[in-house]
Design brief:
- The chain has a domain of about 160 residues: TPP-binding domain (Rossmann fold, 3-Layer(aba) Sandwich).
- About 35% of the residues lie in helices and about 15% in strands.
- The protein has eleven helices and eight strands.
- Helix 7 packs parallel to helix 11 and helix 9 runs parallel beside helix 10.
- It is elongated and about 60 Å long.
- Bound molecules: 2'-O-acetyl adenosine-5-diphosphoribose.
- The site of 2'-O-acetyl adenosine-5-diphosphoribose has 28 residues, from helix 2.
Length: about 250
């Protein structure tokens, strides 16, 4: 693993960012790793090296053992609430504020670290782990708030038994259409696409880099390890989010 990215590549990406009228940033679990939230696919520390996504991240898995899945997400919610944004989250939000209209930030992360760092308009492709929603559409409609469900693991509707589930996208489910459309639009319209901390293993998010490249953008990846979409990038910056993002962005006025 490289300690620091090649200075020439860093300078080149910085120059492209400086000149860009539109910058699209796509983040993945590696963005939150230095805040203490584990990734999914890192060999030793990734969640999917210890847990089975079919059991914990699918509707079938939830229906098979709702208490186990609810408890697993409850534990992850504690970790997310305790985590704090790091210098990379802050650098992105500060860059966005210094250059109004330039930054669109798209994340696969279900935590709220970009939002707490000062970029509430972050587009979430995979939902929000801190949100509750009904497992089935509520037959009584909008007025029936999952926050008022009867306590339990998971909480359930006292009238019809509907379960509450975490507001994340599970395997086999559609991404929120508005978020995906907004992400596609930004990939097609940007001058620079910066991809931070994703393995590029999960679609459709993984396709955004090639969408941007085909539309003419410069594509740069920030990741300490190889990813499945390195070939889509003009620049690969081998380093971590908390190290590379401030080095890239903080000197851009
Ligand atoms: P992965 O766990 O697949 O990949 C994390 C990536 O972050 C790897 O490529 C690591 O090399 C890199 N990485 C690790 N530490 C880093 C650091 N400090 N700075 C920068 N990069 C670092 O996570 P995602 O690509 O986000 O789905 O996974 C995509 C989706 O798969 C997730 O959104 C999740 C999961 O199942 C849902 O939650 C719906």
């Amino acid at each position: 693993m490289a300690e620091a990215p090649d200075p020439a590549a860093l300078a080149a990406v910085r120059a492209h960012l400086d000149a860009a009228r539109r910058v699209c940033v796509l983040t993945g679990a590696g963005m939150s790793a230095e805040s203490g939230i584990p990734t999914f696919r890192d060999a030793l520390t990734g969640l999917w090296s210890r847990f089975d996504p079919a059991q914990l991240a699918s509707e079938e898995g939830f229906r098979a053992d709702p208490a186990r899945v609810w408890d697993w997400y409850a534990e992850r919610r504690v970790g997310v609430r305790q985590a704090q944004p790091h210098a990379g989250h802050v650098a992105l939000a500060a860059f966005g504020h210094r250059r109004p209209g330039v930054l669109t930030l798209v994340t696969q992360n279900v935590d709220d670290l970009h939002q707490r760092a000062g970029w509430p308009q972050t587009i979430r492709l995979h939902g929000d782990i801190l949100a509750d929603r009904w497992l089935r559409p509520c037959p009584r409609g909008r007025a029936c708030d999952p926050a008022r469900a009867a306590a339990g693991r998971p909480p359930r509707c006292a009238e019809c038994g509907n379960f509450v589930r975490p507001g994340v996208v599970w395997f086999g489910e559609m991404l929120p259409a508005a978020a995906l459309e907004a992400a596609d639009r930004c990939a097609m319209a940007c001058d620079v696409m910066l991809v931070v901390g994703t393995s590029g293993a999960v679609w459709p998010a993984a396709g955004l880099a090639s969408t941007a490249r085909r539309a003419g953008a410069q594509v740069a990846i920030v990741n300490p390890h190889e990813s499945e979409i390195d070939d889509e990038a003009h620049w690969v910056l081998r380093g971590t989010a908390a190290g590379v993002l401030p080095a890239l962005l903080d000197t851009l006025g």
